[in-house]
Amino acid sequence: MPSASAAITCSALPAQQRGACRRQRAEALQRQWLASLAWGNGTIPAAEAARIQLWLGVFPVSWQQLPDATLLEQQIATIHQHLAGSYTALLTAMVLDPALQLSLNGPANHRRNPNENLARELLELFSLGEGHYSERDVREAARALTGYRLTADRKLQLDPRRHDPGPKTILGRTAAFDGESLAAWLAQHPATARHITSRLWLQRVGTPPPPQRLEALANGWRQQQLSIPWLLQAIEASPEAIRSRQQGQRLANPLEVVARSLHLLGSRHPDALAISLRGLRAMGQAPFEPPSVKGWPHNAQWLNLRWLQARRRSLQALLADEEVWASAQLPPELPPTLTPIPPLGLALPATPSRATLSALFADPVWQLA
């Protein structure tokens, strides 16, 4: 993805200029990422950007928690590098990711005064899930995560003077854990396979997985050494996921709706991205602005009248902008495959025009995954 960063970091500027610098960097990154989701970029096709966004929902970081939003470019690149690998490798990389560490007070975690924030979220959200660890496990994991600092070249480095090198007992195993070995140990636990499978299932299918299906997928995933491609393919191929797509059971999240609307419209005019970003904030899902470390809502949780009205207004605003419409590159036909089930107010296939796109964007079916 083209870098939104400049040679100088925001934190190096005078204090009165840092806020504006951070906002400008964030907006540039948001525009770039939305464009990547709609059309891809020189290094990441749109389909891969969508898979990266899936994992950004598992490891969400708000640019507002960072000294410079462009640290998120590293997180995007790291996730991209691990899309074809294992969750063990991805989890390890995320534990050592500067953006995630900074967002959860990782560099404040000193051997003399351990900070449990990153450790708690690592156990609860990124690996085991609630109910599968003790408070002692949190304290010991915090000790394992002590000592990481951000270097001048934006790398995370373990400082031996700040790290607790002693043995820690975590989930019944005693070792001189650090961040890397802790992540590898947590990834081996059966609860991690179940918890991460469930989180991805909710994002891709919408409804909670049946217990037997969850157990089968989690066991199969462990047999496949936590292969990320295997799990995503297995979820998409499940009878529940197929039925969800055929029956339109999942409400798409705002980023999905806006990205596919931009893709269909084909306008890369700056107004198109500006209107879309304003709309996404009103819809509740601006890029890199998660509501909490738990990520964004899913499926029925998006059924909020204010958010739903914002979806319709924002898509119609795209069509109403003369510069956007003049630069549109429409397909020769609007095919039936555009929606999971037939639209209620528009017969497909249809000839693309402002009127037909307006009817499509206003149709409730356009909001389904």
Provide the descriptors you would attach to this structure in a database record.
single chain, 369 residues, mainly alpha, two-stranded antiparallel sheet, 17 helices, 4 strands
Reconstruct the topology from this structure.
Elements lengths: L14 H25 L6 H13 L12 H12 L4 H9 L2 H6 L13 H8 L10 H10 L3 E3 L5 E3 L9 E3 L2 E3 L3 H10 L1 H15 L6 H13 L4 H10 L1 H9 L6 H12 L4 H14 L21 H16 L1 H5 L27 H9 L7
Antiparallel strand pairs: 1-2, 3-4
Helix pairs in contact: 1-2, 1-13, 3-4, 4-8, 6-7, 9-10, 9-11, 13-14, 14-15, 15-17
Overall radius of gyration: 22 Å
Distance between the termini: 26 Å
Number of domain modules = 3
- In total, the number of strands is 4
Helix content: 40-55%
Low-confidence stretches: none
Q: Return the average pLDDT rounded to an integer.
A: 95
Largest sheet features: 2 strands, antiparallel
What structural class do you assign from the helix and strand content?
Answer: mainly alpha
Q: Which term fits the overall shape?
A: globular
- Tell me the fraction of residues in β-strands, as a range: under 5%
User: What order do the helices and strands follow?
Assistant: HHHHHHHEEEEHHHHHHHHHH
Number of helices: 17
Q: Taking strands numbered 1, 2, ... along the chain, how are they ordered across the largest sheet?
A: 1-2
